[in-house]
Amino acid sequence: MTAQIDHALEEIRRFRPSPEFAAQAVADESLYRRAAEDRLGFWAEQARELIQWETPFTEVLDWTNPPFARWFGDGRLNVAANCLDRHVDAGYGDRVAIHWEGEPGDSRSLTYAQLTDEVKRAANVLAGLGIAQGDRVAIYLPMIPEAVVAMLAVARLGAIHSVVFGGFSADSLASRIDDAEAKLVITADGGYRKGKVFPLKPVVDDALDRATGGSVQNVLVVQRGGNEVGWTEGRDQWWHDTVATASAEHTAEAFDAENPLFILYTSGTTGKPKGILHTSGGYLTQAAFTHKNVFDLHPETDVYWCTADVGWITGHSYVVYGPLANGATQVLYEGTPDSPHPGRWWEIVEKYRVSILYTAPTAIRSFMKLGRQIPHEFNLRSLRVLGSVGEPINPEAWIWYRHVIGGGSIPVVDTWWQTETGAIMISALPGVTDLKPGSAQVPVPGISVDILDDDGKPVGGEDGGLLVITEPWPSMLRGIWGDPERFRETYWEKFGDKYFAGDGARRDEDGDIWLLGRVDDVMNVSGHRLSTAEIESSLVAHPWTAEAAVVGAADETTGQAVVAFVILKASQADRVTDVAEASEELRRHVATQIGAIARPRQVFIVNELPKTRSGKIMRRLLRDLAEGRQVGDTTTLADTSVMTAITEQVR
Ligand code: ATP
Ligand code: MG
């Protein structure tokens, strides 16, 4: 088998930064020059400029024991103090850190001074419960300010948080608690979602019955949903009884740069989630650097909003650590995009005059499905930078995002990275890079990537291959919790000292990088290796289509055949009456746009696609369906009933 992936879809649109934007941009070409001339020197400068060190480091990178890297190894810092106290000390205590919007419409704004106080109180409570450096704390909370407070309080003590997405089941929570041997769980009674309260504390109780490790000594409960909860005396404590009355005096102690900061499990798109370990100094440096430069952050004037849940890596790096290290003002929203009405997000943008918005292609495509009239009811003119993360963004979705949400002229950055990379790795820099819809474009300054074939040789021309990161980077994962062997095997075995990301990619003639989808999802049709991302983008470019997922299914004549699952736009769903004809039209469309080889054998029109809880398409389940197999493990699926519905539509 060859790793080469044929590339077929042409995208020729280009957008140059406007001179006005470029003139005020935070980033400039000199970052690339400096990083190219002295990569480690560049990162050392960023670490000194963006982070406050209690003990300055003298050593930048120790890579003598690959794949275990040490960055800024002899430096010491407190991560939470970097996100809080230092801004207050510098005179920015009155700046709003968080504009929080609850789903039912309640709201709260916290300044840096208030957030710092809250974290100090919480740190005192945690210390009182015996939490100290190195202890693990599981956090299972809705998107409320206490989620941020809890993470920072744990970090302040040098302990390790493991945030578990509030939508996960008791089983998933139990296995994560056991894996990390958490001593404390921080949760809420419940949170709001789609107009209803969903229970959290009862799930924790259930999880603790299932957990076999018996590591948990206490449960700290925030009151949010007002739902009834059971209580275990001696173990359970209310946040408002303890944190509110605790002292707001707390001196942050400095810890080693390599002190573990958190464990976070991957989204589980391709299989069983991995407990990814991140540490302090390098992680914070790259999170802050990318947040500042990729989003063109002007902390005095910008209002930033990243829509990711804190249960995902995007919520860690771009809701908590990057923005707060940079002293940004941000919006935090508890609920779903369509509660109580489908314009909720745009109402929030208007209300807080959000200027930087960072979200996922799945959200953008679901807004496309509903139509532009919904965002058009709101004033979105405050927006000046748009970001995307999580999956390849189809060029059509990129254009829609830029035009309908961004008003047609503001930069859109497509950011490629992973839980493992800790921070953005590939992205345009607004004001610097000419933008290309659909391409993640270039490694950020200080990052080195390559595209290799199966034998580890760089692929030539515009051929697709395997994306690797060729040099260690500050926010790289330091391991898989408790499983160094799996760490080596998963990422390092294939290419030795190069990190294997598991994604396919190609470079175009300008050297810009295009993500082609997961390597495991690449299809082999009559000896041609085709990318899921390209065929999906072609389908989404058809005026009828809102979303598409493509898989390769075993085929007697071609080895594999392309099978597509398509969701139509709401405005088209009524017009398309003949499903067979619509499928035929979409098959023809792909053949014309890409070539006969990519023509899907079947196009199924469906109402939903199987997605993980972070919104990514789970193609392996569709492959099971397309090959007539029993559908595999659905435990990381957001809605397990979706596969049953799709199966019925397809049969
Ligand atoms: P698991 O590793 O458990 O299967 P996951 O890979 O979905 O889960 P994450 O770390 O949340 O978990 O996602 C990282 C992956 O998301 C990347 O490897 C890539 O496939 C995809 N991705 C993220 N951003 C982009 C992007 N801008 N363009 C293309 N793909 C992206
Ligand atoms: Mg992954």
UniProtKB/TrEMBL annotation:
<keyword id="KW-0547">Nucleotide-binding</keyword>
<feature type="binding site">
    <location>
        <begin position="414"/>
        <end position="419"/>
    </location>
    <ligand>
        <name>ATP</name>
    </ligand>
</feature>
<dbReference type="InterPro" id="IPR042099">
    <property type="entry name" value="ANL_N_sf"/>
</dbReference>
<dbReference type="GO" id="GO:0003987">
    <property type="term" value="F:acetate-CoA ligase activity"/>
</dbReference>
<dbReference type="InterPro" id="IPR020845">
    <property type="entry name" value="AMP-binding_CS"/>
</dbReference>
<comment type="similarity">
    <text>Belongs to the ATP-dependent AMP-binding enzyme family.</text>
</comment>
<feature type="binding site">
    <location>
        <begin position="390"/>
        <end position="392"/>
    </location>
    <ligand>
        <name>ATP</name>
    </ligand>
</feature>
<dbReference type="InterPro" id="IPR011904">
    <property type="entry name" value="Ac_CoA_lig"/>
</dbReference>
<dbReference type="GO" id="GO:0046872">
    <property type="term" value="F:metal ion binding"/>
</dbReference>
<feature type="binding site">
    <location>
        <position position="503"/>
    </location>
    <ligand>
        <name>ATP</name>
    </ligand>
</feature>
<feature type="modified residue" description="N6-acetyllysine">
    <location>
        <position position="616"/>
    </location>
</feature>
<dbReference type="GO" id="GO:0005829">
    <property type="term" value="C:cytosol"/>
</dbReference>
<keyword id="KW-0007">Acetylation</keyword>
<dbReference type="GO" id="GO:0005524">
    <property type="term" value="F:ATP binding"/>
</dbReference>
<feature type="binding site">
    <location>
        <position position="529"/>
    </location>
    <ligand>
        <name>ATP</name>
    </ligand>
</feature>
<keyword id="KW-0479">Metal-binding</keyword>
<dbReference type="GO" id="GO:0019427">
    <property type="term" value="P:acetyl-CoA biosynthetic process from acetate"/>
</dbReference>
<feature type="binding site">
    <location>
        <position position="540"/>
    </location>
    <ligand>
        <name>Mg(2+)</name>
    </ligand>
</feature>
<dbReference type="Pfam" id="PF13193">
    <property type="entry name" value="AMP-binding_C"/>
</dbReference>
<comment type="function">
    <text>Catalyzes the conversion of acetate into acetyl-CoA (AcCoA), an essential intermediate at the junction of anabolic and catabolic pathways. AcsA undergoes a two-step reaction. In the first half reaction, AcsA combines acetate with ATP to form acetyl-adenylate (AcAMP) intermediate. In the second half reaction, it can then transfer the acetyl group from AcAMP to the sulfhydryl group of CoA, forming the product AcCoA.</text>
</comment>
<feature type="binding site">
    <location>
        <position position="518"/>
    </location>
    <ligand>
        <name>ATP</name>
    </ligand>
</feature>
<dbReference type="InterPro" id="IPR000873">
    <property type="entry name" value="AMP-dep_synth/lig_dom"/>
</dbReference>
<feature type="binding site">
    <location>
        <begin position="193"/>
        <end position="196"/>
    </location>
    <ligand>
        <name>CoA</name>
    </ligand>
</feature>
<dbReference type="GO" id="GO:0016208">
    <property type="term" value="F:AMP binding"/>
</dbReference>
<keyword id="KW-0067">ATP-binding</keyword>
<dbReference type="Pfam" id="PF16177">
    <property type="entry name" value="ACAS_N"/>
</dbReference>
<feature type="domain" description="AMP-dependent synthetase/ligase">
    <location>
        <begin position="90"/>
        <end position="481"/>
    </location>
</feature>
<dbReference type="InterPro" id="IPR045851">
    <property type="entry name" value="AMP-bd_C_sf"/>
</dbReference>
<keyword id="KW-0436">Ligase</keyword>
<protein>
    <recommendedName>
        <fullName>Acetyl-coenzyme A synthetase</fullName>
        <ecNumber>6.2.1.1</ecNumber>
    </recommendedName>
</protein>
<feature type="binding site">
    <location>
        <position position="542"/>
    </location>
    <ligand>
        <name>Mg(2+)</name>
    </ligand>
</feature>
<dbReference type="Pfam" id="PF00501">
    <property type="entry name" value="AMP-binding"/>
</dbReference>
<feature type="binding site">
    <location>
        <position position="314"/>
    </location>
    <ligand>
        <name>CoA</name>
    </ligand>
</feature>
<feature type="binding site">
    <location>
        <position position="526"/>
    </location>
    <ligand>
        <name>CoA</name>
    </ligand>
</feature>
<feature type="domain" description="Acetyl-coenzyme A synthetase N-terminal">
    <location>
        <begin position="29"/>
        <end position="83"/>
    </location>
</feature>
<keyword id="KW-0460">Magnesium</keyword>
<dbReference type="InterPro" id="IPR025110">
    <property type="entry name" value="AMP-bd_C"/>
</dbReference>
<feature type="domain" description="AMP-binding enzyme C-terminal">
    <location>
        <begin position="534"/>
        <end position="616"/>
    </location>
</feature>
<dbReference type="InterPro" id="IPR032387">
    <property type="entry name" value="ACAS_N"/>
</dbReference>
